[in-house]
Specification:
nine-stranded antiparallel beta sheet, globular
Length: about 300
């Protein structure tokens, strides 16, 4: 198994960042992610450079000051409690992220050559929440920054909450070739948190015939998995523990599409995992199954 794609908690920390993945550190061209921790009263200056960013609270709230504007992000108590509001920062921007009470904040990013958008606020009430899949493949998807949900240049961001014992990202799928109308070329980052002391899950990635990759990682809170190419899935939740993962995607395509294809070895399973409900705006985490949701901390 190739461990360079699995970054256990702490192994990619850098300064105020618990996780710092850049295109350079990942060895690819576009996707990035920082997980920023601020103590009460602390602030962090962010220069977006050639990338666009979201400021997405994981726990706690913050103020984002940019270009004479201030966005007050209420945030949330944790990723299992609710969706959150967020801020969008275009490339070429100087921003200050400050938090009176402290917190943890995801900073997903995408390198882009375009700069046609302005900094703006994303309301949590406008975040479409999708109950995707059925039975043991059911999970909740919070669609923050996808085509049709929030405008960006190339950045794609969503988060997935999976009940313990269920499988997400199944059947395995990929998006590593530019095939118009069929498949997008996108690099992807998975950042994990898991409910419960000692909680864990598993993430699988395997390659195509011409592009080998082989990952089977036991993932815990604070771990990150990089997916440069190949079939990815399933993401397996151990019974009794509810994983959360943040997905960050970006690639060279200028049409900002998210098109995937299923692994032909397992694609026949897809109709049995069909989504039972359409996406809808929500401010609360909703039950992907009949289990109590959200889980206890």
């Amino acid at each position: 198994m190739n461990s360079k794609y699995h970054l256990p908690r702490g192994t990619s920390a850098d300064g105020p960042y618990d996780v710092l993945v850049t295109p350079e550190s990942a060895g690819w061209g576009y996707s990035g992610l920082g997980i920023l921790t601020l103590r009460p009263g602390e602030a962090h200056a962010l220069s977006t450079g050639d990338s666009e960013f979201l400021v997405l609270p994981l726990a706690g709230g913050c103020t984002v000051t940019v270009a004479g504007q201030s966005f007050e992000l209420e945030g949330r108590t944790g990723v299992f409690a609710s969706v959150t509001d967020f801020a969008y920062l275009p490339s070429g921007t100087e921003a200050l992220i400050s938090s009176a009470s402290g917190g943890r904040f995801a900073l997903p990013s995408a390198r882009t050559e375009r700069n046609s958008l302005s900094a703006r606020y994303g309301r949590k009430e406008d975040v479409p929440v999708e109950l995707r899949g059925a039975g043991a493949c059911s999970r909740q998807v919070n669609n923050y920054c996808l085509p049709g949900t929030f405008e960006a240049e190339q950045l794609l961001v969503c988060e997935v909450l999976t009940p313990g014992g269920n499988w997400s990202s199944y059947p395995p799928h990929k998006h590593d070739e530019a095939r118009p109308g069929v498949e997008s070329e996108l690099e992807e980052i998975y950042y994990f948190e898991v409910s419960g002391e000692g909680g864990f899950g598993y993430q699988r990635v395997h390659g195509t015939e011409g592009r080998p990759i082989d990952v089977l990682a036991e993932v815990r809170s604070g771990d990150t998995v990089l997916i440069p190419h190949g079939w990815h899935g399933p993401s397996i939740a151990a019974p009794g523990y509810d994983p959360y993962y943040l997905n960050v995607m970006a690639g060279p395509g200028q049409d900002r599409a998210w098109l995937i294809c299923d692994d032909p070895a397992h694609g026949w399973v897809a109709p049995r995992c069909a989504s039972p409900a359409p996406a809808r705006p929500s401010t609360r985490a909703s039950p992907p199954s009949t289990r109590t949701w959200p889980p206890s901390p």
